[in-house]
Amino acid sequence: MKKAPSNTKAEVTIPLNEVVISLYESEDKIYPRSVSGFFTQWRWVMIWLTQLFFYGVPWLEWGHRQALLFDLEAKRFYIFKLVLYPQDLIYLTAILIISALSLFLFTAIAGRLWCGYACPQTVYTEIFLWIEKKIEGDRAARMKLDAAGMSSKKLSRKAAKHFVWIAFALWTGFTFVGYFTPIRELAHAVVNVSLGPWETFWVCFYGFATYGNAGFMREQVCKYMCPYARFQSAMFDDDTLIVTYDEARGEPRGGRSRKAEVNTKALGSCIDCSLCVQVCPTGIDIRDGLQYECIGCGACADVCDTVMDKMGYERGLVKYSTQNALTNNWSHQQMFKRILRPRVLIYSAVLLLLITGLLASLWFRTPFRVDIMRDNAVMGRLSDDGMLENVYRMQIMNGTEETQHYRINVTGLKGLEIDAKDTKETQGDKNKVISKESESAENAKQANENDHTFMVKPTESRWVIVALKVPDGAAESGSHKIQFVIEAIESKETVTEKSVFLVPR
Predict the structure, then answer these.
(1) 354 — phi, psi (to 5°)?
(2) Residue 385 is part of a domain; what is its CATH number?
(3) Residue 497 lies in a domain
(4) Is residue 3 part of a domain?
């Protein structure tokens, strides 16, 4: 019997002929080395563009409101000039499908470009690493600081770093909530310490998520939590552009003097400096081949090019290339010719069709919506004046940001008479019920017996009770198809909704 080593404090005694297999092994912390180069510069360009958009757009105004606002309380999405209602879910669905297909297309062409340059996890990890570097120093200094015992210097630097991290994360959470609650009102509430419980919760929740993911979990999110890393292989083929190591040129690897020729001691171009591993944000060795942990950021290509420059060797030992290009020793022109292959053409055609359809639908979209529901409690009845009556509930939603007037007309059955009156007016979808007895003089004037015109305020909706009448005996018993025609007087646009008029036996 002997004692086997364990990662836990307690030691376990096991028989000599048994082997302990650890089901969990904690990974060492990764200290990415700073790097500069073409791909690093592009990564920072994308960081600046995405963050300027994210932090800046909520403060833009369109008219007298926030330009981009997803107002869940009022059940409206404001996207610059466009106002969408929950009934416009089809547009959100189309946008999600287009986003998914775009990801498939870009992945088929150039691998994980999204992950390496624009994914929020990558972007915020880079920002947090930049803050860490400014406060604690470069890679060697950070490693030395973590290995040292606790001291006033270490405590002050760690405290300063985490203070900046938390402040930036809370600012991120505040901005994110500002897309769903008007950000100026949100800022005013924060300054006056009057933030509501839900706003407080979500600001802290997204702030904590940013702090945890970008400050601590980092590559763990990409390696173990992100599903994209798992199914990316289904979208890759031998003509997908990926970060690759030219094994034929680089092997066998080995150290040497700068003055040594490339073929000294029958060695390849790789001097085995391990800098490509040190700069990798996920800690992999690209020389071992393509791995699912690789996010395609190109940091290893940048640092390898600097080493090749110092050694006087040709650049491109680590580069963006395809498997076919490496195997067949293709030129750049031959490699890029393979971009327009069947998979890419199919993705592009479907994507173009969806985008065209979405834009056309938005362009020809009627700026108001009408929903009509029969009063199921009253299938058909005789009114006090001896007429046969059917009752309908109509909701008119004004999708513009100007007051509109709508005229109601009904066709399809001879002798139809309309009696339309307000029953409910929705202002910000608060659904305030207005009974006939409590109708204001303004509302009474809006509906007259001749043209049945109703006013709806900007981006609001209005409920109208529509009673349709025909003389008793004027129509055969059964279901008769009718059409409601609602005309926007200002824009001259119309919406037609089908329904039925029931004549009981």
Answers:
(1) -65, -45
(2) 2.60.40.10
(3) yes
(4) no
Name which residue leads in pLDDT, 448 or 386.
386
Number of domains in the chain: 1
Q: With 60 as the cut, is the pLDDT of residue 425 above it?
A: no
CA nearest neighbour of 481 among 412, 382, 414: 412
> Coil, helix or strand for 40?
helix
Helix axes 120-136, 152-177, angle to 10 degrees: 150
End-to-end CA distance of the chain: 95
Separation CA 395–CA 493 (nearest Å) = 17
- Which domain, by its residues, includes 487? 368-503
- C-beta neighbour count of 226 within 10 angstroms: 16
pLDDT at site 13: 59
Query: pLDDT by residue (tens digit) across 313-325?
Result: 999 999 999 989 9
One-letter amino acid of 214: A
Is 19's pLDDT higher than 80?
Answer: no
Q: Which two tokens stand for residue 432?
A: 């305030």
Does residue 383 lie within any of the structural domains?
A: yes
Closest C-alpha to 123, from 230, 44, 55: 44
**Residue written as tokens 């003097």?**
257
Mean pLDDT on 336-364: 90
Residue 399 counted as domain residue:
yes
